[in-house]
Specification:
The structure is a single chain. Helices cover 32% and strands 27% of the residues. The radius of gyration is 17 Å and the shape is globular. The chain is built from 8 helices and 16 strands. By secondary structure, the protein is an alpha/beta fold. It has 2 domains: 116 residues, 2-Layer Sandwich (Nucleotidyltransferase, domain 5); 108 residues, Nucleotidyltransferase, domain 5, CATH 3.30.420. Bound molecules: beta-D-glucopyranose. It comes from Streptomyces microflavus. This is Polyphosphate--glucose phosphotransferase.
Length: 245
C-alpha cells in the first residue's frame, strides 16, 4: 500500500509516495525550498506544489516542526508565528484537495524508526531525539508514542536546551565536535535523569556523522544509536500516520 508523505522542514519541504510495507519511498522524493518567512499560506502553496509534482490522489500525511493537536498547530519555535493556533488540517487539506493528517516532525520520524529502523522491536522507554535547527523528541513506551513531547525546550543551565545543543548551535557558534558533544552529553544526561530510557535514537541530518560525536559521549547510561532512516524518516512516518499505523 502507498500513501503520500510530506516533511515540512526549516530548509526544505519534501515529499514522496511511501511504500508502507517496505517503509521506504516508492519514488524519488521532490523538494522545494522553504519560503522565508514560512507563513502558513506560503508553506501551504509549497506542500501543494510537492503533491502536484506526483499528481497524487489520496490520503496525505504531513509533518510540522511544532506541537500539533487534532490538526491544529500550537507552537512555532522555528517557523513563522502565524502557525500558532492555525487549523493546519483545514488549510493544507483544502489547498491539496485531499484528506490530510498532520503530526509533529520528531513524532513522525520516531514512528518510522520504531517500525523500520533503529527502534524495531524495542520495548520499554525509548526516546528519539532529532538534532537539527531545533531539537525534536519522540517518547515511546513499549512501542507506543506519547505525542508532542517537547524535550528540546527543557531548560539547561538557564537556557532553552535546543539553543545550546542543536546542530544549528554548533554551526552558529562554530563549535568543535568535542565541544558540541559535551553539550549534547549534558543534555542527554538531563533527559536521562527525567525518563531513564533504555535507548536513545539520535536523528537529524547529523546522525550520518554519528561516528564523529557519539563516541565522545561517555557518561550516558542508556544505549545510544544513530537513526537508520535518516533523511526520509519524517516522510515515511507522516505516511504511516495518514494510514493510521
Ligand atoms: C519544536 C519541536 C520540533 C523540533 C524539531 C522544536 O523547536 O518545538 O516541535 O519537533 O523543533 O523540528
Amino acid at each position: 500500500m502507498e500513501i503520500f508523505g510530506v516533511d515540512i522542514g526549516g530548509s526544505g519541504i519534501k515529499g514522496a509516495p511511501v511504500d508502507l510495507d517496505r517503509g521506504d519511498l516508492a519514488q524519488e522524493r521532490h523538494k522545494v525550498l522553504t519560503p522565508h518567512p514560512a507563513t502558513p499560506d506560503r508553506v501551504a502553496d509549497c506542500v501543494a506544489e510537492v503533491v502536484a509534482h506526483f499528481d497524487w490522489q489520496g490520503p496525505i500525511g504531513i509533518t510540522f516542526p511544532g506541537v500539533v493537536t487534532d490538526g491544529v498547530t500550537r507552537t512555532a519555535a522555528n517557523v513563522d508565528k502565524g502557525w500558532i493556533d492555525t487549523d493546519a488540517r483545514a488549510l493544507l487539506g483544502e489547498r491539496v484537495g485531499q484528506p490530510v493528517t498532520i503530526l509533529n516532525d520528531a513524532d513522525a520520524a520516531g514512528v518510522a524508526e520504531m517500525t523500520f529502523g533503529a527502534g524495531r522491536g524495542r520495548k520499554g522507554t525509548v526516546i528519539m531525539l532529532t538534532l537539527g535547527t531545533g531539537i525534536g523528541s519522540a517518547l515511546f513506551v513499549d512501542g507506543r508514542l506519547v505525542p508532542n513531547t517537547e524535550l528540546g525546550h527543557l531548560e539547561l543551565h538557564g537556557h532553552d536546551a535546543e539553543k545550546r545543543a542543536s546542530t544549528k548551535a554548533k554551526e552558529d557558534e562554530d563549535l568543535s565536535w568535542q565541544h558540541w558533544a559535551h553539550r549534547v552529553q549534558k543534555y542527554l544526561l538531563h533527559v536521562e535523569m527525567l525518563f531513564s530510557p533504555e535507548l536513545f535514537i539520535i536523528g537529524g541530518g547529523v546522525s550520518r556523522k554519528a561516528d564523529k560525536f557519539l563516541p565522545l559521549i561517555e557518561k550516558v547510561r542508556a544505549e545510544m544509536v544513530p537513526a537508520e532512516l535518516q533523511n526520509n524518516a519524517g516522510i515515511v512516518g507522516a505516511a504511516m500516520a495518514a494510514a493510521g499505523r
